[in-house]
Amino acid sequence: MMEGDKRSFRRGEIILRQGETGRSAYIIETGQVEIYYERSDGRIQTIGTRGPGTIVGEMAMIDEEPRVATVRALEDCRVLEITREDFSQHLESTDPVVRMITEVILVRFRDTLTRAEILHESHSMTRPESLERRFMARTDLLESVKTANRFRTALENDRLDLHYQPIVDLASGKARGLEALMRWTDPQLGTVPPSVFIPIAEENGLLREAARWVVRKACGTLARVESTLGTKEEMYISVNFSNQDFVEAGLAQWLTATVDECSIRPEQLVIEITERILIQEPDTTRRILQDCSAAGIGIAIDDFGTGYSSLSYLQYFPINLLKIDQSFIRSMRAAKRSLELVRSIVGLGKGLELHTIAEGVESVEESDLLREMGCESAQGYYFARPVPGSDVVGVLGGTVMNGSG
Ligand code: C2E
Ligand code: CA
Ligand code: CA
Questions:
Q1: By the 8 A CB rule, do 37 and 20 touch?
Q2: pLDDT tens for each residue of 261-296
Q3: Coil, strand, or helix at residue 271?
Q4: Residues lining ligand 1, Cβ inside 6 A
């Protein structure tokens, strides 16, 4: 058992205070404590409560920075105080392997926190006081670790979900494809948007497995929808890939085997990637794309026009579809430059024999304009919002959607 002094705090007493340099951590033996911090605007922000068996103020074991929060006893408490000296003595006398591992972990943790703080600083527009900034960066980091763990559990227990948004042929008004979009509702965190959980899953190495889950599930849904509607081999399913889940040997073989298991053809699967992947790992990506393309799988560039790359990559990679980013569609009717940009992309698509899909179409005017320009397909709330797998047949039932000319 760790050496340390037993101490008692009365209800309402402060155990450690924001701004003070900490030298001790406290293991709570009995009672409840509350953790909070004062923001730069003077407001008090509560973080939570802790009870017996938990530890507070542990950062004092790592660095001599001022405390980022205050801990107060909510009831009479008994705690075990561990000073940095107690901790070092323990490390000295412990098994050398345990010591080395502990020291390495602590140094890494400190580095991670420093990186999180720098990142947080560069992201925040307003620069709050340094203590608050440090606290928020640490909270962000801890939150993202927690979110990643919960996401992992959801993935392992098949508790993720997919919604599907129709991709509509502008000339006929018929749905030609479906984009699969991941959804996650956690019992504690509630509904977490993909813009939050996708980057966290990627950073924590969970997206590779998640992408495979998406492909299996999405291909199964397409097969089921087609057999219900009697539209065999007419529609495609489009699946998003990020960097980590894409750059992987054997991906093309795995995709081909999976479509086969689901009784759909490789031509009915489209993979959506961004320009970022093409720039970051051009050679590996090219090999994977060539294998996919040779197998018949379609390749779409997502958010086209928002990347920083040159257009020359369009001849280096085997690409079939361009998805025009919704930001251009959104501003198309108000800003002439956006309109001309969309027109140029559609023209580029025609010249290079690439199918163009407009994203985020929300009105009949946008849909009409795009059809007049010669854009082939569109996707957006005007036609249909993303729906759960069980509603796809209902949404496609009429087959001719808004916007048919
Ligand atoms: P994205 O691939 O560009 O997907 C289109 C996003 O636009 C979706 O947001 C969709 O719900 C939304 N959207 C569709 N039509 C409209 C419209 O008319 N107006 C507006 N304002 N929005 C529209 P969502 O589902 O929140 O997904 C956000 C992003 O998360 C996706 O952007 C994609 O980058 C990523 N994502 C979603 N599912 C997956 C996945 O399975 N794997 C990977 N790697 N990324 C995914
Ligand atoms: Ca997409
Ligand atoms: Ca997109």
A1: no
A2: 999 999 999 999 999 888 888 899 999 999 999 999
A3: strand
A4: 165, 181-182, 193-195, 198, 214, 240-242, 302-303, 326, 360-362, 379-381, 386
